[in-house]
Amino acid sequence: MLSDIEIxxxxxxxxxxxxxxxxxxxxxxxxxxxxxxxxxxDLAWERFKNNxxxxxxxxxxxxxxxxxxxxTTTTVGLGQAFSRIGKKxxxxxxxxxxxxxxxxxxxxxxxxxxxxxxxxxxxxxFTGDLHAVTAANNLLSALIDNHLQQGNALSxxxxxISWKRCMDxxxxxxxxxxxxxxxxxxxxxREDGFIISVASEIMAILCLSSSLDDLKARIKRIVVAKTYSxxxxxxxxxxxxxxxxxxxxxxxxxxxxxxxxxxxxxxHGGPFANIAHGCNSLKATRMxxxxxxxxITEAGFGADxxxxxxxxxxxxLGGLKPDAVVLVATIRALKYNGGVPRDDLAxxxxxxxxxGADNLRKHVENIRKFNLPCLVALNAFPxxxxxxxxxxxxxxxxxxxRFSVSAVFAKGGAGGEDMAHQLTSMLACGExxxxxxxxxxxxxxxxxxxxxxxxxxxxxxxIAPAAKKDLDSFEQSGYQxxxxxxxxxxxxxxxxPLKLGRPQHFKIAVRDVKLSAGAGFVVVLxxxxxxxPGLPRVPxxxxxxxxxxxxxxxxx
Length: 556
What we know:
Elements: H1 4-9, H2 16-22, E1 30-32, E2 38-40, H3 42-48, E3 55-61, H4 71-84, E4 89-93, H5 98-102, E5 110-111, E6 114-117, H6 119-123, H7 129-149, E7 156-161, E8 165-167, E9 177-179, E10 190-192, E11 194-196, H8 201-208, H9 212-221, E12 223-227, E13 232-234, H10 241-248, E14 255-259, E15 264-267, H11 282-291, E16 294-298, H12 303-318, E17 324-329, H13 331-337, H14 350-368, E18 374-379, H15 386-398, E19 402-406, H16 408-411, H17 417-427, H18 444-456, E20 460-463, H19 465-476, E21 484-487, E22 507-516, E23 521-526, E24 545-546, E25 552-553
Helix pairs in contact: 4-17, 7-8, 7-10, 9-10, 13-14, 14-15
């Protein structure tokens, strides 16, 4: 089979003007970025905003192996499948981060015959949105340090500056640094550090804002530090919001591209799911719902991370009411969760598959806690045996959940028609009564405990003393009603990546908490999760090259 990039280059890509026209957009409602990419502006939203919403379908997954299991591929293929059966569908996706592209995971534009194109552009600089987020984040850092240098009128305590610089790359050497060295003219020496851009609060704000005014208001509320007396210092105190918003004007407009089969795809925003809230922008999702009968979107990593945050953060803050969930599983990921080493996943092992299916059961149970119907989509691999597929289907029948084999990687939309038909049938069966897991009035600590017990299956939580003190401070400062954004490993329901399957009798260790007052949630760091990842021993970057014609090779 051809590589992903070879398939993408052979695609019958249409000018973005055709994709826009098929969505019913007028010329003045979109702005071209070359021949195959465009930005959607507010004129489009103003015309469509009173349309009834289409059906909102979330694609999520079981806990993956380190190689990833094709959730984006399934999302793209499902959108193509809906188009094939005559439904008006739009896909809403996150934008890739350069960190994973050059690190271990690779690109994030789908795979095989279920991709979003132009693949090279999307996986690299795209329309510059992530660079704008990085610039806005680091402008605020520069203003903080300049304020210290110019006399520190706000009495900022350099030891209590919580705002970090960022870059869109995996670079572990920048996690902890000392800034301001070099003498009196080079700033005030202090400890600092970098996070990856997709973990920046700016990215979360971009993805949760409903308008430019809302964007600016959220930026104003960002808490960057404390004074010597313990008073919070905000971006508004530093008079930073106007300039930061100016950097984000273009980035705030959703991006329009297409799939290999020319289904419209809106890609916008890209917060990580294990260290941020893991969903594309609220603006893109709302726009897609108004323009299509079916809006298919994804949430990052396993359902314990992406789906939980999609429901409890994005849907709560955005007033969204999802209609159905597709839970992506693979035979190999289930065997991995059943104890099979990564190198042996291609071998048939029914016992390990049955054991690993406990992970699937837990995710199905979790989805049902939000009062939503679920379809298990088996992302098929050539190594899957008929007996393994039969066993998984029987397990799904046993737990009372619909099952479909997805062959979108090899067959494109044609390989997802059964999924689309089953979802159409599911969505015709009455109204949904979606509800978040917890009430906003619940104390922050209890929200954390509820997620740990109900979603992860933990016995309880432990909270480091400093984190407990910060939670109490957030409550006293009026932030009790905020949802919590759990930063946790994607490889396990627990906070230990080695505890696979459905772990029992464990506690979630809360080691730190961060206030994201602008985004509107509290970040809870568990286990050994890092906000600046590192590169693996053999980074994907080593395989990427460019020939004299400018053609890129090795990019997924």
